Amino acid sequence: MFTELNSILNTSPDSFTRGEFILVSDRHSDASFLIHHFLSFYLRSRCKVCFLGLVQSFCHYSAVSQRLGVSLTQAKEKGQLVFFEGLKESLSLLIPQENNTESEAVNFLRDPAVGLRSLYEFVRSSVNSSGSVEEGAEEWGPPVLLVDDLSVLLSLGVNFGDVLDFSHYCRSAVCSELQGNMVMLVRCNGEEEEDDGDEETEALLKGLTHQCSLNLHVQGLPTGYCKDIHGKEAPMELKPWLPGLSLKK
Fold it and tell me: Coiled-coil regions in this chain (predicted)?
């Protein structure tokens, strides 16, 4: 975990605000370190975590979390972590094999017009299980949904409106109904003011910005990287490993 970021957000694994939707976004930079931070943060907080990993394998997240002092394998075995490996599930659908079972959660790959209802149902069943405790099983805290990254769904042919609806229903179920938290990553490749930018991604980012309670945006500095100066309009002083991070509430 990044203790400096926890200090800025005035939070800790023992004390954090419930019912928050945290939007993580980046532009010409890489905000994935924030996803790794929140994954280890909420596991340390003993929350029940549902992680939609749409861009990397479980091994990737596990290796990074190991460096942060958290074992994803143990979290899965204990039932604290439900990990949806999008790459693996997509492969089983696109290249069927006898021993593999297709996941209904990725049926939008066959027909993007069906929307993300099945993926939402997977999320809902995963986070609802946090409230039921079997005899002898450990009891976990509030549910948390993490998505890395939501904008990938657009490149897979899913309609922008369906992605925004998916976020809205997840927020209603996780944040409002269950008083848990939600963290989603959205990547923007073009410049915001350019006409040839990705219009759907920009529209998704704006829509999610209106939904979220906290927006963490990572962007390369216009003056370039500097060891001692961390942004010409930085709202606060941050370490060099947090260049161009801005916080909006």
Answer: none
Handedness of CA 44, 47, 48, 54 (dihedral sign): negative
Cα separation of 37 and 218, whole Å?
Answer: 14
Q: How far apart are CA 197 and CA 218, in angstroms?
A: 18
Rounded Cα distance, 97 and 87, in Å: 15
Assign 234 to helix, strand or coil. coil
Please give the structure tokens belonging to residue 159.
């309609």
Rounded CA-CA distance 80/108 in Å is 27
Q: What 3-state class would DSSP assign to 199? A: helix
Q: What are the two backbone dihedrals, phi and then psi, of residue 112, each rounded to the nearest 5 degrees?
A: -55, -20
Residue 94: CB partners within 8 Å, gap ≥ 6? 109
Q: What is the DSSP string of 31-73?
A: -HHHHHHHHHHHHHTTEEEEEEESSS-HHHHHHHHHHTT--HH
Q: In the 8-state DSSP scheme, what is residue 190? A: S
* CA gap 64, 242 in Å, rounded: 17
Per-residue pLDDT of the chain (249 residues; tens, 9 = 90+): 578 888 888 899 899 999 999 999 998 888 999 999 999 999 999 999 999 999 999 999 999 999 999 999 999 999 999 999 988 887 777 676 666 666 778 888 887 778 899 999 999 999 986 555 555 567 899 999 999 989 999 988 888 899 999 999 999 999 999 999 999 999 987 665 554 447 888 999 999 999 999 999 988 777 666 666 554 444 433 333 344 555 555
